[in-house]
């Protein structure tokens, strides 16, 4: 009886091992195909990665965000009635100002958080799946006596 259980267990495990080996072989073949595709793209004049001059430049983008926040929020007081419209307006303004700054293959994601200063703390987190060689982000904050604002811009390269 115990021998039958052992035999049935090993017969179930064997197809699993074979299918895993087949998947590994297939993935190696796919990698070879992908490298051949990459060579074809390069020979046709298409690079998967942008030149250094065309990468997302956090420092210059951060200064644009800072200018937009200062121009629109200096002297403002927090109002819950206008906060939603103000955040949308800030995000749109930042996106439009950055349109000429970021190059054609980047998708921009602009996130603006606006809140009232009452002495409490706020924690904001974000997670993204990206290529660390080409994708990046930058963030800038603005604080006055009445409100705080954090604007983040994520630049993701389209392949």
From TrEMBL:
InterPro entries named in the record: Tctex-1-like (IPR005334), Tctex-1-like_sf (IPR038586)
Residues making up the signal peptide according to the UniProt record: none
Regions that span the bilayer: none
GO molecular function, one term: dynein intermediate chain binding
GO terms of biological process kind: microtubule-based movement
GO cellular component, one term: cytoplasmic dynein complex
Segments for region (Disordered): 1-33
Matches recorded under PANTHER family: DYNEIN LIGHT CHAIN TCTEX-TYPE PROTEIN 2B, T-COMPLEX-ASSOCIATED-TESTIS-EXPRESSED 1/ DYNEIN LIGHT CHAIN
Similarity comment: Belongs to the dynein light chain Tctex-type family.
The protein's name in its UniProt record: Tctex1 domain-containing protein 2
Organism listed in the record: Nezara viridula (Southern green stink bug)
């Amino acid at each position: 009886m115990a021998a039958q259980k052992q035999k049935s267990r090993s017969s179930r495990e064997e197809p699993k091992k074979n299918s895993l080996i087949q998947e590994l072989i297939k993935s190696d073949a796919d990698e070879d195909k992908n490298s051949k595709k990459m060579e074809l793209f390069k020979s046709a004049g298409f690079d998967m990665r942008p030149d250094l001059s065309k990468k997302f430049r956090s420092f210059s983008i951060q200064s644009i965000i800072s200018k937009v926040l200062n121009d629109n929020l200096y002297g403002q007081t927090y109002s819950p009635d206008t906060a939603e419209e103000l955040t949308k307006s800030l995000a749109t303004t930042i996106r439009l100002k950055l349109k000429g700054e970021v190059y054609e293959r980047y998708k921009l994601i602009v996130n603006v958080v606006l809140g009232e200063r009452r002495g409490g703390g706020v924690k904001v987190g974000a997670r993204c799946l990206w290529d660390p060689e080409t994708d990046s982000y930058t963030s800038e904050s603005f604080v006055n006596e009445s409100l705080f604002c954090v604007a983040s811009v994520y630049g993701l390269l389209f392949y």
